[in-house]
Amino acid sequence: MDATEAIHKWRSIRRFKDEKIDEGALRAVLEAGRRAPSWSNVQPWHFLVIEDAGMKEKLVALSRGMAFLAKAPAVIAVCGDLTAWDKPKVRKVLLELIDAKAIPATEQIVDQFMLKDQILAVVDRGPSMVLARTFEQLGIAYGFMAVEAVNQGLGMCIVGAFGNEITGALEELYQGIKTELGLREGMHILALLPIGIPGETPGPRPRKDFNEVVSRGKIGTAF
Ligand SMILES: Cc1cc2nc3c(=O)[nH]c(=O)nc-3n(C[C@H](O)[C@H](O)[C@H](O)COP(=O)(O)O)c2cc1C
What we know:
With 223 residues, the protein is an alpha+beta fold. It has helices at residues 3-9, 23-34, 53-62, 68-71, 87-99, 107-114, 127-151, 171-181, 210-213; strands spanning 45-50, 74-81, 155-156, 187-196.
């Protein structure tokens, strides 16, 4: 399947067959997340595969009743790692990029400019910007994972409506789940991806018209 076909075939899947996922297919989806691009290559993510029935039921409660989370053979918790933006860690990934000849910079440019610049030094903009940038990176990662899931013949849904630091809902339950799952300080669960063999074949979902969301040169000028 080529990428265009996989993108066109994407549907959120909320019904799954009661079958285990092929280990190689699941790994391919996780690998797609790992390979996603990110700001300064900071990779502020961790993909936690949850298969335990009891934990999946807790996720249902955390989402105030999205039962399909428990019916999926696996749920990938997409965790944002806010500490990935700390300057020593950003410095390290920037130097790796220089070594890989991915950016035309030097160690001196990193230390004297990139780690101090208003645009590039994300952490200097405060916690809300760190969170915003983390979300930005995770969205790319689970977007890649969604396309790979289709390619692997798997069904997936991106679930964002549950108790966590963003919604502030169900705090006690959320904190308990985080502890049980071993999340470190600075890690947030920002999306849940129930995944499995599709048990439904939904038709295409409505999208805004091409010209409503695309312009050329100036907003309102058709592409
Ligand atoms: C960031 C994000 C969060 C979402 N959260 C939920 C959710 O909490 N529950 C749910 O059932 N679907 C959720 N969805 C799925 C959307 O409802 C779905 O993508 C949209 O209706 C378009 O349908 P499609 O994905 O089948 O094209 C979410 C999608 C995204 C991208």
